[in-house]
Amino acid sequence: MRSVVTLAVALAINVAAVAVLEWNVNQAQLPPQGEVTITQLDVAPVPPLAQADADGVMRTAHSL
Known about the structure:
Order of helices and strands: HEE
Distance between the termini: 92 Å
Strand order of the largest sheet: 1-2
Structural class: mainly alpha
Oligomer: single chain
Strand content: 5-15%
Helix content: 40-55%
Mean pLDDT: 77
Low-confidence stretches: none
Radius of gyration: 32 Å
Number of helices: 1
């Protein structure tokens, strides 16, 4: 009888420990709470990134 009670207590402790670990893992995977601010940037004219020369050499807008 004593071994059955010991086994039952050990099982209860292990189940409780696994439940606490599972809860900790679930809490760690939640997204952080807080406000999210979405802003839109002003649209500015974008210079051409590259222009091809007749000889095939690529030049950036800064090197022209």
